[in-house]
Amino acid sequence: MRLLHLADLHLGKCVLEAPMLEDQRYILKEILSLADRHKVDGVLIAGDVYDRSIPPAEAVELLDDFLSGLGERGIPVLAVSGNHDSPERLEFGSRLFAGQGVYIAGQYDGKVRRVTLSDEYGPVCFTLLPFLRPAMVNARLGCAASTTEEAVRAALAAPPLPPREHPLQECSLQECPPQERHVLVAHQFVSAGGQGPELCESDTVMVGGSDNVDVSCFDGFDYVALGHLHRAQRMGRDTVRYAGSPLKYSLSEARHAKSVPLVTLGPKGDTAVELLPLAPRRELRQIRGRLDDLLAAAKQSAGPQREDYIYAVLTDEAVLDPAERLRTVYPNLLHVELAPPSREPAGEEAEADPLARKSEEELFAEFFRQVTGEPLSDGQRAVLRQVIEKAREDA
C-alpha cells in the first residue's frame, strides 16, 4: 500500500499580508500529479488543513477541489484536525464523506476513530487522532491528565466506539490485532528521548513543555504521520515523521527543501519512506545588500527568480522609498528591513564622523536635496534659519 503523507496545508494563509491561495492551488495540483505518478492508495492529512478556525470561502472551495480530485481517482483520504482548525467545521459532513472514502476526525469525543483499508498483504488499521489537549481528554474520559503526553496515552488506550454509533468507526483494536499493520495520523508536538524537533518561526509551542509527547507513545504503530511543525523531519525512527508544510510560510523556512513523504507498506515490519520533492510556484528567499547593488543584480538576472517572494535587508545608511524601488524589479516583494552596519562613534571617532561636524542647516539641506533633487533656495534657507532659532529658544 502506497500512501502520501501531507500536513499543515494552512489553506487561506497570508505571508506578511500576501495571500498564498494561488500558490496553494498550484502545489495541490502538483500533489495530485504525484499521486498519479506513484499510483498511491491513500492520502493522509495530519491536521492544520486551514490556517484559521473560520477559513475564507476561497480556502474551503480549494479543499473541495482537492478532495474531489482525489475522489475522482478513487484515492481514500484520512484526515485529522489541527490546532488551527475548527474541529466542528472540519468534521461537518464527515458521515456523508465517509461513504465516498473521505474519513475526517475533527472532534475528539472520547473515542479514537479507526478505519481499515486492505491490500494484498491484508488489512491496514488507520487510527485518526485529532489535536488534543489534556482538558479535552479529561472532560471526556474523566481522567486527570496533567500533560499532553498523559492525555495522548489515555486517548489511545480508550476503547473505540461500536460501529453502529459512528460510521467512521470501521474497525476495533480487536478486529485489527497487533500482528496487523497500524498507521497513526496525529497532530501533536513530539520529541524523542528528550530531544525536541527543529522549529520554525511559524511553529507554536507551549511554554514549559507541557504539550510535549514522547515518541514512545507510538511504539505500536508501523508508521506515524505527524502534523504541527513546518519542517519535515523524522522523530526517533524513520517511520515517525513530520511531513512539514508543502510551502514556505515564514522567512525561517527559506532554506528548507519542501517534500511529501511517500510511505510504502509491505508485509508487517516492512515500511519504506521516500521524500518526493515539491517545487513551488514561487520561491521565498531573502536578499541582502545596498539598494543600488540589489537593483542592479536583479536587472541583470532573468527568468522566474524576479517573481519570487522577496524579503529584503538593506545595508544602506539611508534610502528613499526602498520598497517602491525594489518592486520595480521584484513585484512580489514581501518586506523591506533597514539594517545598516551598526556604529556608535565616540571620542575621536565622533570627530571623524562627518555627520557630527555638520550643522542642523547643513543636515536639512542634504535631506531636502535627497527628497526633492533640488538645493534649498535663499528664501527657503532664511525660513529654515528662523525655525532653527525658534526651536533653540523654545528648548
Structure description:
This protein has helices at residues 21-38, 57-72, 87-91, 94-98, 134-141, 148-157, 291-300, 322-327, 348-352, 360-372, 378-394, and strands spanning 2-6, 14-15, 18-19, 42-46, 77-80, 102-105, 113-119, 122-129, 181-187, 189-191, 212-214, 223-227, 233-235, 237-242, 259-265, 271-277, 284-289, 309-314, 333-338. With 395 residues, it is α/β, with parallel strands linked by helices. Helix 1 (21-38) runs parallel beside helix 2 (57-72) and helix 5 (134-141) packs parallel to helix 6 (148-157).
Could you tell me how far the N terminus lies from the C terminus, measured between alpha carbons in angstroms? 80 Å
> What fraction of the residues are assigned to beta strands by DSSP?
15-25%
Overall geometry comes to elongated
Q: In terms of per-residue confidence, which ranges show pLDDT below 50 for 5 or more consecutive residues?
A: 162-174, 344-354
Please count the helical segments: 11
Order of helices and strands: EEEHEHEHHEEEHHEEEEEEEEEHEHEHHH
Query: What is the mean pLDDT?
Result: 89
Helix-strand category? alpha/beta
Biggest sheet features: 6 strands, mixed
Number of strands: 19
Radius of gyration computed on alpha carbons: 28 Å
Widest sheet: strand ordering = 6-5-4-1-15-16
What share of residues is helical?
A: 25-40%
